[in-house]
Design brief:
Herpes Virus-1; 3 domains; two-stranded antiparallel sheet; 12 helices; membrane; zinc ion binding; transmembrane helix; Znf_RING/FYVE/PHD
Length: about 350
């Protein structure tokens, strides 16, 4: 509800919203040869089957939209970022509500610069010629004319982007209508790096450097769950704060930033994690006495075994939990990597 809205203006607005919703439902129902909504509500007894059928008819367009957005992850990410930034404008900025577009453009340009510099820093070889095979000295031209043109185009685009950023930041007239607060920049940047594809792809590497025992080797599975939980938390807090001054875009925000991400987390990400954990669930963790008495080297990766990461098979062989999990996934049979006996569940 807008600030300063009186009951005399709120009631007609609410009535018009209900009327438009009823009209759209009637149009949707007429496509399937069913009666309008008013007739259904007056001539139909409300049994559980009837309510379930009515709910399925009303929710089917939303389900189609959800499947379409999930099939287009880049578009879904962009829409969720725009929705979150717009709501952040409503919560943190009293004026200049268009700041969300400036902020998102600035973050995208900054991400492009970081990704290009990362690509240059991690490029293994700049040699124009590559060998045909490891056992021959014959070389051929690896960087063709098209490849060279593309590389030069990316370099020129990067330079133009950097110059544009410097000019925009240095010129005060270009930012005379852009006054974001530190809290606004902090919240929006945290949400941006948790949803942008470039940072999401590098998050498992950062998580692996923390060397957490409980998620060792499954950073690719835990990373999207952690990031999705973070974005859902930020969106939930923003939605709760917006309830005191409801903007017009709040229903769209709920769908894009709460409903669709939660359904994806509950139907895709969590089952994938449960499937990975179920592989190692039958095999218990090793004790310190077993590590001291038997062996301290993993037979698969030949690395030192640690207490929190070692699993024991029924045939009393010790492995890293991650090594055993990958072996069982690749081999697709429950046999011990050492003695090839069938692994029975405890």
């Amino acid at each position: 509800m807008d600030k300063g809205a009186s009951p005399t203006t709120v009631l007609p607005r609410f009535t018009s919203i209900v009327a438009r919703f009823t009209t759209r439902v009637n149009r949707f129902a007429s496509r399937f040869g069913s009666r309008p909504l008013e007739e259904k509500l007056t001539h139909t007894e409300f049994s559980p089957t009837t309510m379930s059928s009515l709910f399925s008819q009303l929710s089917s367009p939303l389900l189609r939209i959800e499947r379409t957005l999930l099939s287009l992850p880049n578009l879904c990410t962009l829409l969720s970022q725009l929705s979150f930034f717009s709501l952040s404008d409503h919560l943190f900025l009293s004026e200049h509500r268009i700041s969300s577009l400036y902020t998102l453009i600035f973050y995208n340009v900054l991400t492009y610069c970081v990704s290009y510099v990362t690509e240059l820093a991690t490029k293994e070889s700049w040699d124009m010629y590559v060998t045909v095979s490891e056992t021959t000295s014959i070389k051929h031209l690896g960087l063709t004319a098209t490849k060279l043109v593309l590389e030069w185009t990316k370099a020129i685009t990067f330079l133009i982007t950097v110059v544009f950023l410097v000019l925009v930041v240095s010129l005060e007239k270009a930012l005379d209508k852009y006054f974001p607060t530190k809290l606004y920049l902090g919240v929006t940047f945290l949400y941006y790096i948790a949803t942008e594809k470039f940072f999401v792809a590098h998050f498992p590497r950062l998580l692996s450097r923390l060397d957490l025992a409980h998620i060792h080797g499954m950073e690719d599975v835990y990373s999207p769950i952690i990031l999705r939980t973070l974005t859902l938390t930020l969106s939930s807090l923003s939605c709760f704060a917006a309830l005191f001054n409801i903007p017009h875009s709040l229903p769209l925000f709920v769908v894009l930033n709460l409903v669709i991400p939660y359904r994806h987390l509950n139907s895709v990400l969590l089952p994938a994690l449960s499937a990975e954990l179920s592989i190692l669930r039958p095999y218990r963790l090793a004790s310190q006495i077993e590590l001291d008495e038997w062996n301290d080297i993993c037979p698969i990766c030949l690395s030192t075994l640690t207490l929190a990461r070692t699993r024991v098979t029924p045939c009393f062989h010790l492995f890293h939990g991650e090594c055993l999990r990958r072996y069982l996934k690749v081999v697709r049979n429950d046999t011990c990597p050492m003695c090839k006996k069938v692994l029975t569940v405890y």
